[in-house]
Amino acid sequence: MSDTAANPLISCAIGVDVGGTKIAAGIVDAQGRILEKRLISTLPKRGGEAVLRDALELAEQLRDETRRQGWNLRALGVGVCELVDTQARGADVGIPVRL
How far is the C-alpha of 35 from the C-alpha of 48, rounded, in Å? Predict the structure, then answer.
């Protein structure tokens, strides 16, 4: 990370992947290089609100890192595969999607 530290010309994005066993999040630059990454267990039995809080906390930590480094944060992407309940059944929650 030393070649990108404190460089305001670095444009970057945060990606968060919420999965059934882990939540992975990271910062990538415009060339797709990983500048920072974090990984925590999902622990889905705690319920959706707890998982959402964890995903949001990871995104906030990474946002704070971009500020510390002086990077130009341009975007945030969140990936969520099929939503499931605690018995691993698909859950249609009717979330509207805008493209």
Answer: 28
Domain count, the chain: 1
Read off the tokens for 81: 């595969």
What is the rounded distance in angstroms from the CA atom of residue 23 to the CA atom of residue 17?
6
Residues present in the chain in total: 99
- For residues 57 and 3, what is the distance between their CA atoms, to the nearest angstrom? 27
46, 55 contact by CB (below 8 A): no
Domain CATH for 39: 3.30.420.40
**Could you state, in chain order, the average pLDDT of each consecutive group of 10 residues for the chain (99 residues)?**
61 94 95 95 88 93 96 93 64 53
Classify residue 39 by burial, with Cβ atoms within 10 Å: 0-12, 13-18, 19+.
Answer: exposed
